[in-house]
Amino acid sequence: MRVPLSWLREYVDLPATETGRDVQAKLISVGLEVETVEQLGDGLKGPLVVGKVLTIEELEGFKKPIRFCTVDVGQANGTGEPQEIVCGARNFAVGDKVVVVLPGAVLPGGFAIAARKTYGKTSHGMICSSDELGMGDDGTKGIIVLPPEHEVGTDAIELLQLVDEVLDIAVTPDRGYALSIRGVARETATAYGLPLSDPALLDVPGPNAFGYPVQVSDPLGCDRFTARTVTGLDPEARSPLWLTRRLQKAGMRPISLAVDITNYVMLELGQPLHAYDRSRVQGPIGVRRASQGEKLTTLDGVKRTLDAEDLVITDDRGPIGLAGVMGGANTEIDDTEGTTTEVVVEAAHFDALSISRTARRHKLASEASKRFERGVDPQAASAAAQRTVDLLVLLAGGTADAGVTEVIAPSAPHTITIPANHPDKVAGVDYGRETVVRRLQQVGCDVYGQDELIVTVPSWRPDLTDPNDLAEEVIRLEGYENLPSTLPKPPAGRGLTDRQRLHRRVGRALAGAGYVEAPNYPFVGEHVFDQFGLAADDPNRKVVKLVNPLSDEEPALRTTLLPGLLGALRRNDGRGSHDLALFETGLVFHPREELKIAVRLPVDRRPTDEEIASLTEALPLQPRHAAVVLTGAREQAGWWGKGRPSDWADAVESARVLAREAGTELIVRGGQYGPWHPGRCAELAVVLRGVEQVIGYAGELHPGVLKTLGLPARTSAMELDLDVLESASSGVPKGPKISTFPVATQDVALVVDASVPHADVEASLREGAGELLESIRLFDVYENAAQLGEGKKSLAYALRFRAADRTLTVDEASAARDAAVSLAAERVGAVLRG
């Protein structure tokens, strides 16, 4: 919200010495986020005056049209003689009043004006456009043409209000009242302790039976609708300079008088309005929910298909506007034809949630919807309609119709009961009852009672719903900076949990293995599960959906880390980084079978264990996962060698890295799941309480998935459940005991069927070798049908034997090796090669 300081001063009598920076500091102290203070006209220096074009000579022989003009600037040039100026614009004619900057002046940006020779003529100054004066968008792309009533030689700096300060306020969703000059003025008056001249305090006639007919069929969606009619408008009337300049300073573009007035009143009072061309409205105005599939062409020229949840404004033909968002083109006031002489002014109050969903559904954010979804003062509708009518009568020569329509759904004021010392307990400061009552009254509340206060919330503060909201108002007005700094006292002896330690160790281990951490947002769209090829009954398809998602394309919480990681890989690959190894550790979310409502925790004490447990049970299941994705070179080529590309084995090895950090024995075997290539996918499992449990998958992704997602060929990935991995561990990993006795190494090469997994052979060797086996490593895989036979392969292992208390003899090492080979022969049909 852009707030010109000159406009703000109309409603709060600020000291003349107060600057925009001073007001910014005061508003920040009461909780408004004033981001910047823009200095309009900074560095501007006259003479800058109103001039009248006397003659125009078209100069020939140049690449673009050039005009040599003489302009009457009165005595501003010191001689009274016409000023000779060269200008390239063509949107003015002889007799027009324009803005002229004379030699010696300085325009915004440090642009000094001097007489100079150009196009064969000497130009003594410049005829100005709005851009050159820093005025903002005025709807034209040429010279400023002023209304004829302004006198030649008048100071244009004052006339155009070029020097001002504008406060740019970032309005948070709970402070919709600050999207108006009225709301900001109220906060300013409170901050300075000054009275407020409320622009909404107008004499408004009561409703009668002569107003324009209105039918509201959805009182929950529209609880107040005011309609006023103004006739006899001058279709040639244009917005005065003071009105257009205020709109420009507030960041809005002047359009036409009727539209400018509704925008002006919306900025002033915070109440969105709409003006209909009465001659184009057929029958009564109605408010209802749209029929599914109804069509409406909005003011932006887009034909929209309506949803059954959309609230619409109608006449006898059907929808003529998207309520609270944008009007329809079929009742638009068209000033290009100059035929609108009667208007119907709408000032209504719509349900915030309905407007927010409609605006998001149609991707149509507007100034009106931005205010309605944050909360608009329903009591201001009548005053806003009256203010609009008064300005139409004053500026367009219209006549206010005697009819006044008001459709109001009955509602009671919102009251909150709060202990007088509740803000004291929340803040840890002794404010006292008098301070609490005074501050709540400054907000606009009516307060009654002694120890127990009954607070009636003002209509413009729908965000105040419970005692803690009222406590926040007291605290912010008393000043957050005045709250004492109290350091919490954590109980002794509580460090990181085992889960947190594992999380940190995993991150360090993956980083040490060459992976780069790439955290992602925890949101997904359900279409990604189709892209991953998940089965219809896959548990990962059951998602927790957000009521108010940041993006309609990703309305659910993730059940897997891969969509975010693969998206990061795709973006980096598209930007030229082709050798990538990324990882992420984070929570995934699964809905509970039974939905529970979360309890509201107290703020005046620590929640009990039962309350925390109840809150936890209302949350989704949130296991912590770890995932990696790889593509491109795993080892770079150089003078040291050729390097090698990443493949499925690297993804599997990353899982083993995590298992080693957790001190868990990881079972790796062939598997098939979702996005992984069925022939290059490893299933990862652990033994938990005596039962094998699958915790994830690793390997190369399916080519079809890679094509669908736009990923490089041979991309690999791994994902596993860290929480289950931790549960299967034996605790914090212990350092190995290093024996002082030498190792005995025995190599064996076993011939097995090509379909036998290496993991099964290794498991048989490990079990058969017994407790003397220190490690086992596969160092060669050989396939040759001529030597081994069809469908056979040779697996060569290095077995390391060592005893803790003695040096092993050759016979002992050989016996252990033979026992291992014997069990492998029994289990998987292995035959000792050679």
Automatic annotation (TrEMBL):
Cell compartment(s), UniProt: Cytoplasm
Residue ranges constituting the TRNA-binding domain according to the UniProt record: 42-157
PROSITE patterns (alphabetical): B5, FDX_ACB, TRBD
Gene: pheT
Record-given protein name: Phenylalanine--tRNA ligase beta subunit
Cofactor binding mode and count: Binds 2 magnesium ions per tetramer.
UniProt keyword annotation of Cytoplasm present: yes
Oligomeric and partner information: Tetramer of two alpha and two beta subunits.
Naturally occurring in which organism (per UniProt): Streptomyces hokutonensis
